[in-house]
Specification:
Elements: E1 5-7, E2 18-23, E3 27-30, E4 36-38, E5 41-43, E6 45-50, E7 54-58, E8 71-75, E9 81-86, H1 90-103, E10 113-118, E11 122-128, E12 131-137, E13 143-148, E14 151-157, E15 163-166, E16 170-172, E17 175-177, E18 182-184, E19 190-195, E20 198-203, E21 209-214, E22 217-219, E23 225-227, E24 233-239, E25 244-252, E26 259-268, E27 274-276, E28 282-284, E29 287-289, E30 296-298, E31 301-306, E32 309-316, E33 319-325, E34 329-334, H2 352-355, H3 377-384, H4 402-412, H5 421-435, H6 443-446, E35 464-469, E36 472-477, H7 479-486, E37 496-498, E38 501-507, H8 508-513, E39 521-522, E40 531-532, E41 538-544, E42 551-554, E43 558-567, E44 582-590, E45 600-602, E46 605-612, E47 615-624, E48 644-652, E49 659-669, E50 679-684, E51 687-688, E52 696-698, E53 706-711, E54 724-733, E55 767-770, E56 780-783
Parallel strand pairs: 1-3
Antiparallel strand pairs: 2-9, 3-6, 4-5, 6-7, 7-8, 8-13, 9-10, 10-11, 11-12, 12-15, 13-14, 16-17, 18-19, 19-20, 21-22, 21-34, 22-23, 24-25, 25-26, 26-27, 27-28, 28-29, 30-31, 31-32, 32-33, 33-34, 35-36, 37-38, 38-41, 39-43, 40-41, 42-43, 43-44, 45-46, 46-47, 47-48, 48-53, 49-50, 49-54, 50-51, ...
Helix pairs in contact: 3-4, 4-5
Amino acid sequence: MLLPLLFLFAAAGLTDASIQFPITENTQVDTSLCPITYFGQEYTTIYINFTGEHMFVCFNGYYHPESNGDCIKAPNTESKTYFELNTEDYSFLNSVTFDVKDSINTITNDATCYLRFDHPTTFGLIAMGSQSVLWWYNPPQIIASVLVNGDVVENVPGSENWVYSDTSGCRISGFGVKPGTTRQSLDNCTSLICSNTSVSSTSSCLVKGLCTVTGPTVIDFRGQMNSVSDRCEYTLLQDQSAGFSLKANFLERRRRDVSFVDSVTLDFSQGADIQLLQGHRVLVGGSPVTLSGSVQTFNGVGLSKDQTGVTANISLNGSPVSVFFDGTTAQTYIDVPVSHTFTGLCADSSSSSSSRLSSDSSCQEQYKDPADDTINPTTVIEQCNILKSAPFSSCNAVVDPESYIIACRNTLNKYPAVDGLRCQFLKAYAKACQKSQSTVQNWWTAAKCHHPEPICQDKCSDHEFCGDIHGNTDCRCRAIYASQYTEQNRLGGPTVCKDNTASLTLVGCLLKENGIDYNHLHLNDKTCTGVMDPESHMLKFSFSSDSCGTEVTTNNSQVIFTNAVVTRNSSSDLITRQDKVFIEFSCSHPAPELQNVAFKIIDNSVEVVLQSGEWHYSLTMKAYSDAAQTQLLGPNSDVRLNQKIWIVLETNGLDEEVVSVVTDSCWATSGNSPSSSPRYDLITDGCANAEDGTVQVMGNGQGTSNSFSFNMFEFSGKEPSEVYLHCQLQLVVKKNNSFPLPGCLGVSPPLSWSGWGSSGPARRRRSLRYRRGAPALISMVWTP
């Protein structure tokens, strides 16, 4: 068996391209540089395969005889071709635009790029914005076939000249329709007209209508079908005269590139809105209500709930409207004429652009997940075609199953048949039959489906949906939300460090999907367990610097606080069914070394804010003229030579039970650079300069605050003189209930400080001001 090749060409900033290569086997090609709109659907990938007699270029998967593919079929007995994607041949594009418009009066756009296939037959697809054209150049006896959902829309014979065929068109009841074509609805009451790429309609009689929205597919009142490809909110039905709108919100589940109807809202211009949510939950005016099998009336709306879902009955201008929602399918039945007074996807499923309500464009972002190699197209056909077999066949004459079959195939060819998805389409059809007074008896037994389908007993959060987890029905993570963690192989995080505490948040649905019971998790200290938020289903672990078995370590630059989330390990347990879990997380304080400590003067004090990860602590330095530290020195204080100055260093945000601050060294220079000269040392290795009897350091390393004093001086021979003082500090971790202190304990351990400079005679009035120096410096300068 040959494995299919995959060619990817999309690249950021690449707009003009000419790409060519031979194809001799099944090949998938990314054509997002040249997207093709084919009968109302835009495609950015093509699938080429050979069957011995023919070559197929398909848009929604490799061709299979029983598949419902959108394909171009061309004779090819050599099982090879030469492919080209071109966006830069402007001469050809301009020329072909003229030729196409001259040949096909329904084409109004200009050519932007093309896909070409050469040898042994020559043909191509020309992209023209929201339109496209098949370009065919072969002998007359060579015929190409245009297929939509597996059915032939047109056979295009060859010619001695180029032949063009409009492949824009529309889809009516799942069938491809050429522009300008008119078809009658199944009840012959409505004429459906394909005009270029949209469908318009005219009604000739009064009919009742049923609109089904299941998965990403909308089957409108006239049986016309279309799909929603994004995660936006849409109007399903609007009656402006009655002031009523029915809205549906679409969201992803296991895959980012497939959307499902997720909730339904009945919006009234007067009165409270009613929301039908997952898990058969209902909100009226934003508040939850409890329903039963009996009808309860809220603002004129009759609400009831049974095992299959929730039903809302309203009256529009005296005519009944029924809305049913079970979490996967929304069905609206109107017992009024389907006329022009209604708008929305249920009135016209092709009106997606005008029916989209979401103002946030992010909901329109498109994703491409890898193809699911567990999907078997033959199995999908068998699963969906059951709607033509007993017991469903008893209803086929009343409700045409074709749209439901196509919706089933389209979804299951991209999305795995999990979480009851296969049965979802069967249930939608059976419900449509029931509304048409043709009940399908015991269908769930014949189809091997659960009845009723299980729902999540707990409320799933906004980033979750109800699905299967290891054989149990529970809340799973939505794919887009989960990708921010799974792409980095994480279960949550990152660590949040603040005020000597740390926290780590794990995603509850990811834990479940990985078979981890959060009740079995704890920190190093088994008594420290996580707290599960009942609304968000996020599990939060927290610890402080001296609790829950936190380990404190140091290296040359940091003090690190580390803990871990681990699995409970009980020696009394003979067996365990829990995987081992070890998730380590930490916070750190940087030692305030010179290169990463920045000081600034704030009025009459100096403050430094030190940051380590997301833990912060501040260091404030103030100068006083008295030992009692009551006379604060300000910018205009009178400072004299040989006057004793007291410096107080206070910290905020450090845990004094765990760490202390030690001043390693302080020195003075006449320039603002710490490496400038001359240099005068005041504190070295945590100890005061023994040759300067005026320096006294108090409480160095004995806590998170300390002080020191010295007598004011100036550098000799410097006129005018400025004195800059620089300090380097460290954090010390407590060991054996005590802190390691400098060896000069008897000489009063030192700390951090600032300095002044002076010039001129003593007792002359001086001012204090800030001199901006290199980062990590504090400079309090005394000048004339």
